[in-house]
Amino acid sequence: MYARLAAYWLLVLLLSGSLRPACAQTAPPLNLNLPPQQTPTVPDSSRARTSADSGRLAVPRPAPGRPLPVRRPRTLILQTEAADQPLLRHYRVKTSLADSLTVLREVRELVLALQGESYLTASADEMRWRHDTVRVQLYVGEKFRWARLRNGNLGDGLLTRAGYREKLYRGQPFQPQEWSRLQERILGEAENQGFPFAIVRLDSAQLRGADIEGRVLLERGPLIVFDSLQIVGSTKVRKRFLTKYLQLFPEQSFSQQRVEEAARRLRQLPYLQLKAEPEVRFAKGRARVYLLLEDRTANQFDAIVGILPNPTPGIGQKRVQVTGDVTIALRNIKGGGKGLGLQWRKVDLNSQQLDAQYTHPTFFGTPLELGGSFNLYRQSDPVNAFQTLRPRLQLTYPTARAGRVSFFTEWRSSRLLAVDSQATALPANLDTRFTSYGLDYTWTTLDDAYFPRQGILANGQASVGSKIISRNSQLKAELYQDLPLRTTQVSASTRLERYTRIGRGGVLLTRLRGEALFNRRLFLNDLFRVGGLATLRGFNELNFYASQYAVGTAEFRQFTGPDAYVFAFVDQGYLRQDILTQVGENSPTGVGAGLSFRTGAGQFQFVYALGRDNQQKLALNSGKIHFGITSRF
Predict the structure, then answer these.
(1) Which end of the chain is more exposed for a tag (fewer CB within 10 A), N or C?
(2) How far, in Å, CA of 185 to CA of 118, rounded?
(3) What is the pLDDT of residue 69?
(4) Which DSSP category does 60 fall into?
(5) Of the candidates 382, 375, 393, 489, which has an alpha carbon nearest to the alpha carbon of residue 433?
(6) In degrees to the nearest 10, what's the CA dihedral of 236, 242, 244, 245?
(7) Orientation angle between helical segments 176-191 and 256-267, nearest 10 degrees
(8) Which of 261, 252, 241 is nearest to 362 (CA)?
(9) How many Cβ atoms are within 10 Å of 630's Cβ, its own excluded?
(10) Over 263-302, what HEC string results?
(11) Contact at 8 Å (CB) between 358 and 371?
(12) Is 350 exposed, middle or buried (0-12, 13-18, 19+ CB in 10 A)?
């Protein structure tokens, strides 16, 4: 009777949110739910004592000439009813412990574990110390269970989203942790619907034997709406843009989830730095969100120009050729989040490449981002001269937790610039047109967009479309007789990166990236270009043609400053070329080291690498030097 009465009062305190330790049933009482306030008096010669005259902790000293006493372990013996002994075997209680304090902790953890498993009246009623043995009188008690947990005034939709099912609370063990988690889920749903001051409680609680019955009630409190965003800090970003990007509109019902997502979405912007978590202040039924932001130097300008002699100029070529790499990238134009990029590259005498890109976030006030890109590649080699155009239109939905999802369409056309009209076989390049539709997905947890120390970056892309081979009037018509002019082509690519901290200032980068084309008839101007600083170090820029390739990288970076580090790496690639005129495989390897540091002109990177493949051996005289400088403003 007394045990049930104590359990009832414990249940009332528990369900009202003020859980207190269970009362012991025999003297002397022992509170095991809280840390012991005073060590019990036990025959322990190693226990410290307090000096009365000094008030300081006095450490006992052995008598002169006598060795220190050997500390012997304490033996714990649990005394309980015979029916409860099989239950205690599942908890694997230690019976040999180092000292008396460890014994107290072991008993306390056992009592808490029993109460967490629905034995609410479990307690250690008495502890007897004799020499090195501790005898504990343990009371387990009855296992409490839900008789029924009914819905009080909550809507069915809210309870469903919170994970409530009435059958889960009928005849099931009563677990305080599960009841707490249900309250947290209900409160989470309420604060995302405009009620951040809601309270959940159990009404009409009844205890019938070991059965618990009650109703869930929600006191919603006042309805709170968003007021406005307040930007604190030196930034040129516009409040109007951030309101649309974060989807935090005035007069909209308050949502704690949107506030938390705002922090994650702000960290995805390369031109902004979130200095602290968003702060929310409530007043007069409104919530005002404060953002502490600072601009980052994200605009980029690089220009490297070189002059190479051409000892054997061809028709239309000059004796001096200009090569170079010019990149300009503007981000957050006029504080509206828009971006514009342009890059021109000419890495050798016979090829050049032009890329342009534009992004427009919060398209028509929605969280969608509209983007477009254009790529032109021109190769003027006398044997393989062609030009490829590749415009692309993309619509992106950025999310705070699930990454960025993009849908795109791409048009690709390639035409020959030089044709041998007397050819008796199809050349390595042909005139083609390819229209594709695809999906792109990016997910990242990197702690920094420019110099990450830890985190993961994952990107995947796939597209499918129809490829059409156009007849070239300068080639003989019979060369196209056995060639299917319309086929289905599939393209896929992936990029996986992981950054792991190692020691002080050390970071290990592991990366896997690759692309693949699948078509029955591929030609040289359809293939990917691989090699150089961006893909496979130790080889010339865009040195390889591949229909499928994969490159694995292991790179260790030792940071000497916030944006300065030295590194060593290994790049291992697998390339496959499967075209109508040639089939082959290659496994190039690149090894090397380098450094990266910030100068007055920008971020400078220097890499020395050695490469080995089927036609090149690993030798110092074939080493490659890659360098570049990135200027941000």
Answers:
(1) N
(2) 21
(3) 53
(4) P
(5) 489
(6) 110
(7) 80
(8) 241
(9) 17
(10) HHHHHCCCCEEECCCCEEEEECCEEEEEEEEEECCCCEEE
(11) yes
(12) middle
Count of residues in the chain: 633
Predicted structure pTM score: 0.72
Tokens of 624: 């490659």
For the stretch 65-102, what's the b/e string if a residue is b when 16 or more beta carbons lie within 10 angstroms of its beta carbon? eeeeeeeeebebebebeeebeeeeeeeebeeebeebee
Nearest one of 18, 41, 22, 40 to 31, comparing CA atoms: 22
How high is the mean pLDDT in each 10-residue block of the chain (633 residues)?
A: 50 45 34 35 37 39 50 81 83 81 82 80 83 86 78 75 76 77 86 89 78 84 93 91 92 92 89 91 93 91 69 65 82 93 86 93 91 93 87 92 91 91 85 95 90 94 95 88 91 97 95 95 91 87 92 96 94 92 90 91 87 86 79 82
Contact 134, 120 (CB under 8 A): no
Tokens of residue 152, six digits? 């009080």
Q: 423 CB contacts (<8 Å, ≥6 apart)?
A: 475, 476, 479
Q: Which residues contact 39 (CB under 8 A, 6 or more apart)?
A: 47, 100, 101
Give the C-alpha separation, 443 to 494, whole Å.
Answer: 12
245 in helix, strand or coil?
Answer: helix
